[in-house]
Design goal:
Blueprint (H helix, E strand, L loop, with lengths): L9 H8 L3 H23 L2 H17 L7 H38 L1 H22 L3 H11 L4 H8 L3 H29 L1
C-alpha cells in the first residue's frame, strides 16, 4: 500500500510511472497546496491558480514515465507551474490590450457614426425590398440570407433563370431607390 507521503525511494516512483492512481493521488495531495501558493504569487487569483495547477498535474500524468526520482518530479511540477502561470499572464495581457482597443473603438465617434449609417442603410434596404413585387421580394430576402441562385430556385420552385432575372430587376429598382442613401453616406463621411 502506498503511504500518504511520496518518498524518494524507487518503489513510489515506479508506481507513479506504472500509472498507479493512488500514488498519483498521494502526489497530488502532497504538492497541490504548495504549488497553488507558489503560483498564486504570479496569478493572484485563487480559482485561476487552482485551474493552472490541475493542468500541471494533467501534464505530469501525461509524462509520468519520464521520471526516475522525486527531485525530478518536483522540479517538473514547479517549472511547469511557473511556465503555465507566465503563459496565463501573457494571455491576460493580450486579452486586456484587445479589450482596451475594443473599448476605444466602441467609444469612437467614427464607430458610432458608421454603425448608425449601416443600420439606417439596412433599414432602408429592407423597406425598399418590401415594396418589390412578391416574387422579387422573396428572392431578394433569400439572397440576403446567403442562399445561392440554385438554392433560391429550389426553395421557391422556380427556374434558376427566373431567379437571375428577378434579381437583376430588383437590383435596378433598389439601386435607384438607394441612391439618396448612398449620397447621404458619402456626405457623412
Amino acid at each position: 500500500m502506498v503511504s500518504s507521503h511520496i518518498s524518494p525511494d524507487n518503489k513510489h516512483i515506479d508506481l507513479l510511472k506504472a500509472g498507479d492512481k493512488k500514488a498519483f493521488q498521494n502526489l497530488f495531495e502532497q504538492y497541490f497546496n504548495a504549488l497553488c501558493a507558489f503560483s498564486y504569487r504570479y496569478v493572484e487569483d485563487r480559482s485561476e491558480t487552482e485551474d493552472i495547477i490541475q493542468e500541471v498535474f494533467i501534464s505530469f500524468w501525461e509524462h509520468k514515465k519520464n521520471f526516475t526520482h522525486i527531485n525530478s518530479i518536483k522540479a517538473y511540477l514547479y517549472t511547469t507551474a511557473r511556465n503555465k502561470c507566465l503563459n496565463h499572464l501573457k494571455h491576460r495581457i493580450v486579452k486586456q490590450k484587445h479589450e482596451a482597443a475594443l473599448i476605444y473603438e466602441l467609444e469612437s465617434d467614427q464607430f458610432f457614426t458608421n454603425h448608425i449609417i449601416a443600420e439606417e442603410s439596412f433599414n432602408k434596404l429592407y423597406a425598399e425590398i418590401k415594396e418589390l413585387p412578391e416574387s422579387a421580394r422573396k428572392i431578394m430576402l433569400l439572397a440576403l440570407k446567403g442562399l445561392k441562385n440554385r438554392e433560391i430556385a429550389d426553395t421557391l420552385g422556380v427556374s434558376e433563370n427566373t431567379v437571375k432575372t428577378q434579381k437583376k430587376i430588383a437590383y435596378a429598382k433598389l439601386k435607384r431607390k438607394m441612391e439618396p442613401v448612398t449620397g447621404m453616406i458619402l456626405f457623412c463621411l
